[in-house]
Amino acid sequence: MTFSAVNTIWVLLGAALVFFMQAGFAMCEAGFTRAKNTGNILMKNLMDFCIGTPLYWLVGFGIMFGAGTAAFGWIDPFILGDYSHILPAGVPLWAYAIFQTVFCATSATIVSGAMAERTKFSAYCVYSAAISLFIYPVSGHWIWGGGWLSALGFHDFAGSTCVHMVGGVCALIGAKLLGPRIGKYGKDGKPRAILGHNLSIAALGVFILWFCWFGFNGASTVGMDSDELIVSAGLVFFNTNLAAAVATLTTMIFTWLRYGKPDVSMTFNASLAGLVGITAGCDAVNPFGAAIIGLCCGFAVVLSVEFFDKVVKIDDPVGAISVHGVCGALGTILTGLFATGISTMKGVFYGGGFKFLGVQLLGVGSVIAWTAVVITVVFSIIKATIGLRAFRLQHHERQQPGGGRTRGHSRRGR
Q1: What is the pTM of this model?
Q2: Residue range 211-226: average pLDDT?
Q3: Integer CA distances (angstroms), 234 to 164, 211, 224, in order
Q4: Helix axes 166-178, 93-114, angle to 10 degrees
Q5: Helix or strand or coil: residue 76?
């Protein structure tokens, strides 16, 4: 195999940017939660990468990219097998392996935000390992490793479903089984706001993530050595930025009309929602399609946060379920409507009929089913053994409704 310097540099640059997304997630989650939980949250965001990296090297990469069956790759400890069938042109194995490793870590880190402020650290380590070992790699094989969804023509360019929705579904199941934070819901069942302690840090996290998303999506071309790839990368960058900006504007205006003033934290989340939504089809839609996807995600993230908070009563401190799960699925499905045929099948609005849309719907449904079933088993085992929830409060302080604390006897949660 002849290696390409420009392709390899492009992939390695993308890997570095996607790795730095861990800092963005850490800042967002820390800023949107209370100060007393900052150390725990930062430790989780560090450890999911440090746990996931060796496990993905040991087992995950082989499951995801091995030339096994349409449903499963192969067990290849330490990545010793032949992956020439899947390597991008001119990119060596270890460059591609680190690029895929940082994507795996991104999926795992999404879960911690939805389960923040009441999860045992040991439990986090276990379920983070499970995501990196087999949950993410199996569905990743279906989509990116030459599996059955790939054969059907399912299109998820950089991971709206493969990365973000998988993390969002895990977050949904985990937050449901874990239960809400103490004081989140009153006796009447109505949710109470538990405000984050540092919007400045949360805003920094959003800007870091937006910046790094250019590597997340842009470098997923995995090459820059042809006119076609250069044009594709430019379109990917433009669509990524446009969808995020439109989603942010949409949520700002929507919350302004809905609540009487713009909701700051919701608008921050809208930027991420737009980025998540466009990730599946950023190479396949034109800027008009990207703007519509951003618009839809801007509305969806607000309505979804309200639904999970008020109707389903699932406590998600950072909105991870809505941003990554809902908007990941939505963006993937909308690709089936707005794909212009540039790099995949044409969508419904461009004369492609409903076949491609059906494949997108099938892929989203299949990945949801796989992820939900397996992570439910994982969380149930953790809950029955070491336990999911952290109960003890520090300094013998008693939690009051709404997140305040007063001196008193120690109290144990549910």
Answers
A1: 0.94
A2: 97
A3: 23, 15, 11
A4: 30
A5: coil
